[in-house]
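Here comes an entry:

___
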Amino acid sequence: MIRSLLIANRGEIACRVIRTARRLGIRTVAVYSDADADALHVRSADDAVRIGPAPTRESYLLGERILAAAKATGAEAIHPGYGFLSENAEFAQSVLDAGLVWVGPKPRSITAMGLKDAAKKLMQDAGVPTTPGYLGDNQDPAHLAAEAAKIGYPVLIKAVAGGGGKGMRLVERPEDFADALASCRREAAASFGNDVVLIEKYILSPRHIEVQVFGDSHGNVVHLFERDCSLQRRHQKVIEEAPAPGMDETTREAVCAAAVRAAKAVDYEGAGTIEFIADGSEGLRADRIWFMEMNTRLQVEHPVTEEITGQDLVEWQLRVASGEPLPKRQDELAIDGWAMEARLYAEDPAKGFLPSIGRLDVLRFGKAAGGRIDTGVTEDGEVSPFYDPMIAKVIAHGSTRAEASERLGAMLKDTAVYPVKTNAAFLVKALAHPQFAAGKVDTGLIGRDGVAMAQPPVPSDAALSRAAARLVPKSSVPGFRLNAAPRCRSRFLLDGEAIEIAISGHGREPPATSALVTENGQAWLLTPWRKQGAHGAAAGDGAIVAPMPGKITAVYVAQGDVVTTGQKLLTLEAMKMEHTLTAPFDGTVTEINATAGAQVQVDALLARIEDEGES
C-alpha cells in the first residue's frame, strides 16, 4: 500500500481524499495557493506546500511545481482529484517518469478518451452504442451543414476537446447553423486550443445516465451500477442520484455491460465514468441509450455510488494504484437503497446564479438520518473568487427514492449560510418539482421551469416572529393573555429592507443586536429599525455596498445628487461580468466612495442614499 500521498487539488475533493488516506494510515501532503493558505484541506493534511499565487494557471495547473512539492516532501504517489490536471495525460506521464505512483488511469487511456470524435470511433469498434452523428475530418462549414441536414434537426455541435458545457451549441433550424458553428468554434479555440467539432443528433427528451467503472492492473474491470444526472442547468449537474429512476434490470444489465466493454477497450485502470445520453420519451430502453464520453477520473457525484454500494471509491483508487486487485468481484456488488446528492453552491439564483463570494460568517448544515456532507470550507472561512464556488455536496441515503429525497430536502431546508448567498432554496424547490418527484426528469427541466425555482422564498410570519422576539426587551412585549402568547408589532430591517413584524413570545434581556432568520434553505439578517439621519443609514438601508470584489468601471452620480428608485449609480466589473448598482429608493446621494478604475473588496461601502422623508 502507498505510504505517503500528495493531493494535487484543493477544497472538497482534497478533504475527501485525505479522510480515506488517514483511515488507511497513509501520510498526506496538501498543496495550496496563496488564496488557500488557511483552507480546510491545508489544515487537514499532515504536510502542506505552497505552489504559487491564487490564479490556477500560476498554481494548481503548474505540474512542475506539484512534482517539486512531492519530491520535497517525500510523497510516493499523487492523487489528482477531479478538475485541474486530473485528465491531463502529459502530467500523468510526468508523474510516472518521476518515479511516482499516479492514482489514475494510464496516460494512454486518458489520451484515448480525451477527444470526443476519436473516443466515439473507438467505442463503435468496441460494440458500444453511440449517438447518430458526424465524426469526419472534413471541417468545411458547408460540409458540416450538409451532414447536419442528413442527421436531421435539431442537432448538437460539440467541440471534440470540450467539456463542462463549453464548446457546445444546440441548433434547431438550418438557417441558424452557420452562426452557431462559428460561435462554437470561437469558444472551443479559446477554451481548449482546438476548434474541431463533431455533430450529433439532439435528443428531444434527453436523460443523462452514467456508469461507474473500475479497472485494475490484473485485467479486471467491474461496474458499480449507474447514476442519473439529468437535472442540469446549462449542462452543469445540479442533483445526481443512484440508481436511475425507471431503470429495469434488463436495461441496467445492457448499459452496464456496454460501459465495461468501453473501459476494456482502452485497457482501463482506476476509477472512470462512462457517460450515456438516453432518449427518455418512452422510458429507459437499451436501444435508446448511447455513449457520449468517458471521464477518466473520479466524478464529483461519486458519493451516491458509495452510498448505494457501501464501497469507498477513494480506497479502491489507492489500492488499485498500489498494484492490488479490485476489492470486489462483480457478483459481490449490489444496490442497497437509493442515494441523492445536491451541489450546494455560493451563488444567487435570484440574480442569474451570479457567484456570491466572501466570508462565511454562518455555515450550518442540516442533518438527517442517512445524511452526509462533503465540504472543503468551514464557518469563518472564505469563498474565493478564484475557484469553483461549491460550498459542499449534500448527500442523503434512504431505503427508497422517496425517502432519500425527503431526507435530502430536510438537510437543505435546515442549511444556514450567511452573508454569502447559496442555491439551497433553489435545490429545495427542484426536489419538490412534480416531475422530479415522479422520477420523470430530463436535462431540459430547469431550462423550462427554472425561473420559478430561482425566485427567493419569503420567510414565514412564524419564523420572523421568533427571530424578532430576540431583538426586543421583555418590557416591550405585552403581558399575559389567556390562551395566547404575548404579541406586539415592531419595525425591523430584513436584509436592509423595512418590515413590520408581529412578535409572539417573550423578549430578551438584554436583547440581541441582530438575528438570523433561516427557513427552506434561505437566510436573512434581521436587525432593529433605526431611522436614517446625520449619522448615516442603518446597515443595508441606503448603503450601497460591493456584492463581490471587483473593479469600478463607471460612476454616474456625485455627492448631493437627487436620485430616484432604480437609477443607475455605478457599474462594477466582477467575475468577468458587469453589475449595475442602482438606487434602492428616492433620495439624495450623501456619500460616494467610488471612482472609475478603483478595485474594491466585497461589502465595501461605495455610496449612501438618504431618504429625506426619514431624516
